[in-house]
Amino acid sequence: MAVSAVMGALSAGTTALASGTFIGGFLLGAGALGTAMTHFLVTTAMGAALNALTPKPSLGGSRGYSLTGESGSALDHQIIYGMARVGGVRIYDASTGGNNDFLHRIIAFAGHRIEAYEEIYLNDEVVTLDGSGNVTSPARYNGYVRIKTYRGLTNQTADTDLIDETLSLPEDEGRWTSAHKLTNIAYLYVRFKYNQDAFPNGIPVVSATIKGKRIYNPDTAVTEWTDNPALCLRDYLVSPYGLAQPSTRIDEASVIAAAAVCDELVGSDKRYTCNGSFVTASTPSQVISDILTSMGGLFWYSQGKWRMKAAKYTTPTVTLDENDLRSGLSLSTRHSRRNNFNKVKGTFRGPESDWQPADYPTVTDSAFLVADNNVENVVDVALPFTSDSVTAQRLANIFLRRNREQLTFSASFGLRAFQVQVGDFVYINNTRFGWSNKAFEVTNWTFGLVDGLDLQVQMTLREISEAVFTLQDAAVFESNNTNLPSAFYTEPVGLDVTGEVRVINESLTDVIVATVTATQVTNVERVEVQFKKTAATKWTVIGVGDLGDYETVAVDPNTTYDVRARSYSFLGVKSEWTYRNAFQPVGSASPPANVTNFRANLNGGVINLEWNAVPDLDLSYYLIRNALEETGATFANSTTSIEKVSRPATSVSIPTKPGTYAIRAYDKLGNPSVSSTSVVVPVAALEAFTNNPTDVESPTFPGTKNRCSVVGSELRITDTSEAPSTAIYTFTGNIDTGAVRRVRARIDVNVNRYDSGSGLFDGLSGLFDSFPGLFDDFTGGTQFADTDVISFISVTEDDPAGTPTWSAYQRFKAGDFYGRAFRFRVVLASETVGVSPSISGLTALVQYN
After folding, report:
1. Can you list the domains of the chain with their CATH numbers?
2. What digits encode the pLDDT tens for the residues 179-190?
């Protein structure tokens, strides 16, 4: 026999507004906007700030069903945005069995399709189900409770088990049939089997944590589950249980922009999320206001479309000044004392509070309290769609700081103000009031004719600043439950250790910076930080004080250090030490950055080389080398063009030579950058001359050799058993131009770095870890700069066939010289034992017209 039977669909709930325009929580008559050609009126709504700006007792906001208990045939739909733990309504109860052993219950949770049941609860215990829906845990319910889930699909069918098990009931006493599909209703079918031990306190209350409605995203054109507040608000605007607005009346660009702000990460969490529920009996003004609280948002109607904005500072792109004014300024410098609150408190619901309304940490600022003569003024801001205390506290901070931006003014502006709208940030310049690029937020905007002649924009603006939105992370919220931390336990602190290099008294100094943090900030009275060399046993105190950075200077970059920190509670209880061991401050010992944007410009007989400055504090100079090859050149197989270009120079001019120019940066300890950076000056780009006589010495090198010799077809230093080592090679003859004239001369050298021990691993000098480059090049074949070929020239104005008077040999790279005949010499140089420059090509060139 049926105990009771209540069947029926959920009612449609509230209907869309038809004759008015909803703006910021108020219903305006159809004539409130006026005509489009004569007057536009826009106002703003700012979520919880609607209450905040006019403090009054909080009514708790719109709410869904928190407990499963109510029953009926014409109840309001519950709408779930994001994820929330909710109750439902009983829309069917029936009993079957010889002794009414089985109770069959249908509990409706949402009047729409949901994404998933994340957790299902009996009383406050999470249950687990097997494949047939039987409860397997907690064990006392095993065999006595079966739960079957339905997500409210459009093609949903009636539960066959319930149909079969109620066949014995008369049709008018609750028989379930195939017609009872509950289309678009998300519900649970729960069957209870009577057992006094399983249900000592009666039938348990059923609730669930639910991922709610799937929502359309205008940016991706995809309908899927989301907890994005902007997309949830858009859904409410277009839904029949909301405002039932066509999508053509939604400013999709503002929705997409607001959604992007909400999805930005603050730490590892989204900036704003919307997680909560409401019933369709809730007034639209309350629902919209509550959703807006979850993103600290603005919402308004302008130019025929609904628009929204999430709380984030954006740099103004429009600047208005005295030239744009069409009237005087009506200025208000402060709120009334009633509205000038200095403390924000309120509630949120989420996993931290087991989805029960709980207080988030109160937000205040001592500076505001001092400004208000130490008179405390508290406002209650409920955040029914915010599910974690950190976000709740961040939103409360925004509300508090936004309210403290009190400077407000109204004025008429010219048509340049037509490009802004409500919610925009603009810069205002006004000499009289001392405003220079002062940021204001547009809170009211009206456009129309004045005296029938002048088009003007009337605006109300309120000061705003980036500081309103750039907040420090809130302290972790401690739930008001029995899991309170012990008064005799202090949580260990967080410790991050980094190394820096600073210039102190014109000397490079390595610094260890220890950053101490805590999750339970309010429980920390002070912290203590110590360090020692890893090999040592005695610790040295760096400092004692507040959370933050602690430094020790003049540490050895070649030594590892241990750092530890702990906190003290206000009762004097010490936390355990937090360690960071074997930290090496590799600041000044690390190589400078590679040179970037290395470039060359030809200017007659001069090449201008330029590059971007290397930012390292310990940068000393740059070394520039040149190779004749235009492809395949390396830093090692080059000759030195400029030994040192001291910082802060970022350019140098040198005589013109073709080939590849390569540059490396060196620090004050002589450490070079990891790799060289090169630029090619092709020979085809050089100035062309009519006459180009040459003296080619390779491959036989017949000239005079001093401590050098020819091996194969390459010229090398004969003995490299000691370092440094040098050798001199003098060209065989000279180049006679036939008359005294101005010429351009240079020596072209093809050279490789030859290492006599490079083929033998055991023959390598130095430490293995000191070799640069990849393993296949660890002998430094491309990056070493320990060899060089230095060019020299001698000039005479006499006939070289007679008894000429020659000038002394002078060192040169390339350049213009005056004379008739020219002779040449090179010096081979090496700084490393067993290493020599190996010259395969050697040509002197004299050019003239």
Report:
1. 78-211 (no CATH), 494-583 (2.60.40.10), 596-685 (2.60.40.10), 694-847 (no CATH)
2. 999 999 999 999
